[in-house]
Design goal:
single chain; 290 residues; alpha/beta; six-stranded mixed β-sheet; 12 helices; elongated; disordered N terminus
Length: 290
């Protein structure tokens, strides 16, 4: 079964299921070691199930819910549905892209809010195909691979849940740096102006005049989640931070205090950045100058 546009992917369902099982375990007053001993499983398996690092079978879920004395049929049915959906086919699965990037795509599908700060390039969710091609060419000169990279990026934009709130802050250098030709940059700036006019996207430029700020080290993306499954399961997904790597895979930060620090940094960048009307004026002036 394939997932539909705007529907969370299998990774998200595994995270939701793992969060629910962890909460039910804690509610039952059991440690991971207790569960492992009772079900004759290794503690590492229980831990990996709760953190979505491996697939989980329907039988495992039934055994765990029995042990946790979860009798509510609606809760049990919902968690069994998550088991099924965690095995669905994701549209990005057949693409030859890094596993950490696939994970990002899956998480985007369930995020209620995305906060994206970039200091090197226009965020992927806002790029034109031509800009994306020119940018990816800095890392890859294989025409087929470039075509696939851009296809995935365009699909990410098209299939992202329409209810997701999108907040972007980019350093001024992103727009001053020429990627591809003058025509490509002009088209990209025009697209940013058009997107900024909508109510769904908050796009701001952080000007050079700000000086030193908390985003000088690297770009990052904060993905926030809320009420991903019913209150009957009493579970929610924790927010997560994604940072791209220069070579190879990007990495994720999931410790709540660290994620909160990144979110605080993003909000500080928003306060320092140009307002949306000021950003639009900046983009229009940049377009005239080019």
């Amino acid at each position: 079964m394939a997932i539909i546009p705007g529907h969370p992917g299998p990774l998200v369902r595994r995270r939701q299921l793992g969060a629910a099982l962890r909460q039910h375990r804690i509610g039952a007053g059991l440690s991971i070691a207790d569960v492992a001993k009772e079900l004759l499983l290794s503690p590492s398996k229980i831990s990996r199930l709760e953190t979505a690092q491996r697939n989980i079978s329907a039988r495992d879920v039934r055994d765990l819910l029995d042990l946790y004395r979860v009798a509510d049929p609606e809760v049990r049915d919902e968690l069994m549905r998550l088991v099924e959906e965690s095995r669905e086919f994701a549209w990005w699965a057949h693409y030859n892209i890094d596993s950490s990037y696939k994970r990002l795509i899956g998480l985007e599908g369930a995020a209620t809010t995305i906060c994206d700060y970039q200091m090197g390039a226009v965020p992927g969710l806002l790029q034109t195909p031509e800009y994306g091609t020119a940018l990816a060419g800095a890392w890859n000169d294989d025409p087929e691979n470039l075509k696939e990279i851009v296809e995935v990026r365009v699909a990410r934009q098209r299939l992202l849940n329409s209810n997701t709130n999108l907040n972007f802050v980019v350093d001024e250098s992103v727009l001053r740096r020429s990627i591809g030709s003058t025509e490509i940059m002009q088209a990209q700036i025009r697209r940013l102006i058009d997107l900024s006019a909508g109510s769904r996207i908050v796009f701001q430029v952080l000007p050079f005049s700000v000086g030193a700020h908390r985003g000088l080290v690297s770009g990052f993306i904060v993905l926030q989640f809320s009420n991903p499954i019913s209150t009957g399961s009493a579970a929610s997904m924790s927010d997560i931070v994604y940072r791209e790597g220069v070579v190879g895979a990007g990495w994720y930060i999931e410790q709540p205090e660290e994620v909160a620090g990144y979110l605080d940094a993003f909000r500080d960048l928003q306060r320092r950045a140009l307002t949306q009307p000021e950003t639009t004026s900046f983009l229009e002036e940049l377009l005239r100058d080019n």
